[in-house]
Amino acid sequence: MSDAALLMKVRAALKTVATPKGGDLVTSGAVEGLSATSDGVVRFTLNAERAGGDPETVLGAARAAAGAVPGVARVAAVATAHRKPAAGGHDNPLGLKKESRIEAAAKELKDVRNVIAVASGKGGVGKSTVAANLAVALARRGLKVGLLDADIYGPSLPTLFGLSGRPEMRGEKIAPVEKFGLRMMSIGLLVNEDQALAWRGPLVMGALRQLISDVDWGALDVLIVDTPPGTGDAHLTLVQSKLLTGAVIVSTPQEMALADVRRGVELFKKVNVPIIGIVENMAFLDDGKGGRNYLFGKGGAERAAADLGVPFLGALPIYPDLRVASDEGVPVAIRNPAAPEAQAFERLAATISGGFIR
Ligand code: ADP
Predict the structure, then answer these.
(1) How far apart are CA 345 and CA 338, in angstroms?
(2) What is the DSSP letter of 187?
(3) What is the Cα gyration radius of the chain?
(4) Distance (Å, rounded) from C-alpha 139 to C-alpha 133?
(5) Is the dihedral of CA 272, 276, 280, 281 positive or negative?
(6) What is the CATH number of domain 100-355?
(7) How far is residue 76's CA from residue 42's CA, in Å, rounded to a whole number?
(8) Which residues of 107-125 are buried (b: 16+ CB within 10 A; e: fewer)?
(9) Domain locations along the chain
(10) The model's pTM
(11) Which residues sit with their C-beta closer than 6 Å to ligand 1?
């Protein structure tokens, strides 16, 4: 839900920030797409060309002003204007090969036939769980599958697949970790958690570029990319790369999660990335007596899909064993392929590979 009162306060705060070009951030039109949710999340895009000066400095000032408004819990903001590569190694956070622009990075994936982003408006809706089990289910269908954990601030692939240790190098490139028939890479395997947490826009974008271009993905039918929640730098990077075949959006049924889903769908639509569809996760809990408990409301994601004119890919109930399997580092689609949860992912994989995988 958006919060009009909070939005006004944030706008007023941004109006107090002077731009290097003269005037303030709001009047100059440098702040675009400003929104504030009732849980205090403020989002905007800084048009750095309109503001002038160094985009990161202006963005920092804008973030600080918005973040100081009482009631603001988090500020998610990016600068859009094209910026020169920073001298301080911003574009090479992993310290590997020299920085390449995202279009160049994308060329390195020439043998990857499809790239599918798995996205969600919010964290904790099961995006990573869906991405991981979908990848396993696609591999079980005989496809060559890669899984890239691009959730820079909350990588979960090492836990989901029980991976640890640093990956090996193969010449100048990083060898993906191979397990359960998948090729996988996660920022969590390359840097320490607190190091990645300190990264802001350009570093996040640089890291993702390197996960694309400096990992020896080889030939793949499909690369599944587990993106961070919301829409931010990582999504912009993927969109700019023109790599994406499509996006799968994961949501729980409740209203709060759906407002963010709408924003995500709009982002991908605006840049002509096809929405493969919405998966409703944690849709209900089986009561063991044939009944269903709709803990988060009924059918919200399905209605949102209909409203937004995008396909509905199905509902996944709450499976208590799914969480256990994830925590143990063996995806359920591997541990027990006959389990209903594994079957549900097989169906999802069948739907997606039928329509989207070339
Ligand atoms: P996200 O990537 O959206 O932050 P995760 O995939 O990490 O979410 O899932 C959050 C938690 O919910 C994890 O503990 C996961 O095991 C659990 N989970 C996800 N989907 C389900 C489901 N359908 N049934 C039961 N637990 C689930």
Answers:
(1) 11
(2) G
(3) 21
(4) 10
(5) negative
(6) 3.40.50.300
(7) 6
(8) ebbeebbbbbbbbbbbeeb
(9) 3-79, 100-355
(10) 0.73
(11) 120, 123-129, 156, 281-282, 316, 318-319, 322-323, 326
Query: DSSP label at 289?
Result: S
In the reported structure, the alpha carbon of residue 333 is separated from the centroid of ligand 1 by a whole-number distance in angstroms of 14
CB 53 within 8 A of CB 20: yes
C-alpha distances out from residue 142 to 139, 149, 274, 276, 353, Å: 5, 21, 24, 21, 11
pLDDT, tens only, 87-100: 444 455 555 444 44
Mutate to test the pocket of ligand 1, among 326, 335, 341 (most ligand atoms within 8 A of CB): 326
- Which tokens go with 107? 């060329």
pLDDT at residue 166 in the model: 84
Highest mean pLDDT among 149-153, 176-180, 189-193: 176-180
Express each pLDDT in 104-120 by its tens digit: 767 778 899 999 999 99
Distance CA(31)–CA(59), nearest Å, equals: 10
pLDDT tens, residue by residue, 161-175: 999 888 888 888 889
Nearest-angstrom CA–CA distance, 322 and 332: 6
List the beta bridge partners of residue 215. 174
Nearest CA to ligand 1 atom 26: 323
Q: Are 228 and 151 in contact (CB under 8 A)?
A: yes
Question: Which of 105, 345, 133 has the alpha carbon at shortest distance from 237?
Answer: 105
CATH of domain 3-79: 3.30.300.130
Q: Whose CA is nearest to atom 19 of ligand 1?
A: 126
Please count the residues of the chain.
358
Residue 7 exposed, middle or buried by CB count within 10 Å (0-12, 13-18, 19+): middle
Same fold, 3-79 and 100-355: no
Tell me whether residue 55 is exposed, middle or buried, using C-beta atoms within 10 angstroms of its C-beta: 0 to 12, 13 to 18, 19 or more. Answer: buried
For the stretch 3-58, pLDDT in tens is 788 989 999 999 999 998 888 999 888 888 788 888 888 888 888 888 888 888 88
